[in-house]
Design goal:
The complex is a heterodimer of chains A (about 425) and B (about 160). Chain A is an alpha/beta fold and about 425 residues long. Chain A has 2 domains: about 280 residues, Aspartate Aminotransferase, domain 2, CATH 3.40.640; about 140 residues, Alpha-Beta Complex (Aspartate Aminotransferase, domain 1). Helix content of chain A is about 40%, strand content about 15%. Chain A is built from 17 helices and 12 strands. In chain A, helix 5 links the parallel strand 2 and strand 3. The termini of chain A are far apart. Chain B has one domain: Rossmann fold (3-Layer(aba) Sandwich). Chain B contains 5 helices and 7 strands, in the order H-E-H-E-E-E-E-H-E-H-E-H. Chain B has a 5-stranded parallel beta sheet, sandwiched between helices. A two-stranded antiparallel sheet of chain B has the order 3-4. The two termini of chain B are about 30 Å apart. The chains are: A alpha/beta (about 425), B alpha/beta (about 160). Chains A and B meet through helix 1, helix 3, strand 1 and helix 11 of A and helix 2 of B.
Chain lengths: ~425, ~160
């Protein structure tokens, strides 16, 4: 396993990366640059900026100083070369595929994904002519066979929401690279504190920063992080990066910007035209969240482990899918890829099926019934009736979200209180 | 020295100490990478002299273009090579001849034998890097485009 080159510890990066004191005012906390646009020095500087010949800000849809700090912060935490912050995690996925695919192309995705990703990939992306092939990421031969000549990427989520399945990233990265395509990992559930996919061979990482990175359930956002390692010009399969870009008078991004090609393209073309920029206020909240990420993740996984062990012993619970439990088929894989803990989101099956599941969710007093994860607060959800209801039952089960399944996102409250609340809710559902 | 990585101090010292850069392979076309780099370095106060036999006699960004390094009048602190790795060999020898203090080879350009000759002659060598990116990275601008500069500082920095 290659070690990260950065000489700083992750706790230091979480607090400092990207955020030197404001050069103009000395403000130590990153200011919220709540502005749409930026005055040019003169006409020549303006044309240089529009030609991408110098660094600077033009319009907040393409770049903003507060947002840039967050981009550098998360790029540093992941060990990446650069990053593009977006309005949401979905926008980050859109931006990645927009950069890599053309109409008629396809990508291979793990079938165990957040339900919203499956819907985005298999329905909405189809309207752009991008075909998504879903496969079981544990079946490496099927994965290899699914990567055809039109394939431009392999996409996995690890751990996968909601079932907590962990992907064997190293061989999956090898399959991607043998086929000449990048591996994209949705690492929302892991965060860079628990797993850094770029160190295991992934080329791109996407996050919904709405979750653990911002961490307080108060700021929507997403980010696409680039390792800077993929050779976009090795073949003619990635024309957005390797071929002349008409809107910039024939500029070739990879030739001009080297390992920053995707980062620059993501702003100058992706955000410019898709328009899904992150708001400066959300970037500020997410920067603040990142500063305590290592501390919060320690507590999240500690509490999650205790709650999972409690549930596994409970008579109303049929099974617990948490890779931190020795009973999980992903236990060994979690020890390899996530030695500090298997995350804080997992599912369990409640005896009594769909109806019992609904009752447990409704009986909680401390756990909040809502469709989010990665909050300081503990959250509970019945996927089959909410986030995964747009899927067929077969797809629900494949995604780890069958009718009796309840999803938890374990927060950082006193663990005894979380356990007591779940215990009374399970009792209420059984009565 | 080994050329797989450079310390920030090594690169910073080079960029702070050179003023006149001869850019071999400078293009007169605005959408070529060399033009981007030349324009950026000019804006940061460097004097950049283009060297390109095809464009000799023309002006690029207000500077006279010369066919060879030897024809460039006056002193040259650094030679920035926008040519392939093989061509970087004889250009490095010309840079030594010209008494330059630094030979800089652009991203994708690496010639270890030439680097060894330059270092033997007392020159500093940077390979497979871009002075525009390194300048921006070390002096605070690169993060403006979402890049990871690798720099952490609790001090107020001069930008640009």
């Amino acid at each position: 396993m290659p070690s990260p080159k950065n000489p700083y510890g992750i706790e230091t990066l979480a607090v400092h990366a990207g955020a030197s004191p404001d050069p103009t005012t000395g403000a130590r906390t990153t200011p919220i640059y709540q502005t749409t646009s930026y005055v040019f020095e003169d006409a020549d500087q303006a044309s240089s900026l529009f030609n991408l010949q110098s660094y600077g800000y033009v319009y907040t849809r393409i770049g903003n100083p507060t947002v840039s700090v967050l981009e550098e912060r998360i790029a540093a935490l992941e060990g990446g070369r650069g990053a593009i912050a977006t309005a949401s995690g979905h926008a980050a996925q859109m931006l990645a595929m927009f950069t890599l695919l053309s109409p008629g192309d396809e990508f291979v995705a793990a079938r165990r994904l957040y339900g919203g990703s499956i819907t985005q990939f298999t329905r909405t992306f189809r309207k752009f002519g991008w075909n998504c092939v879903l496969v079981d990421p544990d079946d490496l031969e099927a994965l290899r066979a699914a990567v055809g000549p039109k394939c431009k990427a392999i996409f996995v989520e690890s751990p996968a929401n909601p079932g907590g399945a962990i992907v064997d990233l190293e061989p999956v990265a090898d399959i991607a690279h043998d086929a000449g395509v990048p591996l994209i990992v949705d690492s929302t559930m892991a965060t860079p504190c628990l797993c850094r996919p770029l160190e295991w061979g992934a080329d791109l990482v996407v996050h919904s920063t709405t979750k653990f990175l911002s961490g307080h359930g108060n700021a929507l956002g997403g980010i696409l992080v680039d390792s800077g390692r993929f050779d976009w010009s090795a073949t003619d399969r990635f024309p957005s990066l390797s071929q002349p870009e008409a809107a910039y008078h024939g500029l070739r991004f990879h030739e001009t910007f080297g390992d920053l090609a995707l980062t620059v393209h993501g702003h100058a073309v992706g955000l410019r035209d898709l328009g899904a920029a992150m708001a400066p206020m959300n970037a500020f909240l997410t920067i603040t969240g990142c500063e305590t990420l290592p501390l919060r993740m320690e507590r999240h996984v500690q509490n999650a482990q205790a709650v999972a062990e409690f549930l596994e012993r409970h008579s109303s619970v049929s099974r617990v899918s948490y890779a931190g439990l020795p009973s999980s088929p992903y236990y060994e894989r979690a020890r390899k890829y996530m030695p500090k803990g298997a995350g804080a989101v997992f599912t369990f099956g409640v005896r009594g099926g769909y109806e019992a599941g609904l009752k447990v969710v409704e009986a909680c007093e401390i756990l909040s019934h809502l469709a989010n994860i990665g909050d300081t607060r503990s959250l509970i959800l019945h996927p089959a009736s909410t986030t995964h209801r747009q899927l067929t039952e077969e797809q629900q089960i494949a995604a780890g979200a069958g009718p009796d399944v309840i999803r938890l996102s374990v927060g950082i409250e006193s663990v005894d209180d979380i356990i007591r609340d779940l215990d009374q809710a399970l009792a209420a559902a059984a009565s | 020295m080994l050329h797989h990585s450079y310390s920030d101090a090594y690169i910073r010292d080079i960029l702070r100490s050179v003023r006149t850069i001869a850019m071999v392979g400078a293009s007169p076309h605005w959408n070529r990478p060399s033009y981007f780099v030349m324009k950026y370095l000019q804006a940061k106060g460097f004097t950049v002299i283009p060297v390109n036999p095809v464009a000799a006699g023309q002006e690029i960004l207000g500077e006279q273009t010369y066919a060879t390094l030897a024809e460039v009048p006056g002193k040259v602190d650094m030679v920035d090579i926008f040519r392939n790795s093989e061509a970087a060999g004889p250009i490095t020898d010309e840079a030594i001849e010209k008494a330059a203090r630094v030979v800089w080879m652009q991203i994708g350009v690496r010639n270890d034998a030439a680097a060894a000759r330059a270092e033997e002659a007392g020159l500093k060598v940077v390979m497979n890097r871009c002075p525009k990116i390194e300048y921006a990275r070390l002096f605070g601008e690169l993060g403006w485009s979402g890049a990871n500069s690798g720099v952490i500082s609790s001090r107020r920095r001069r930008i640009g």
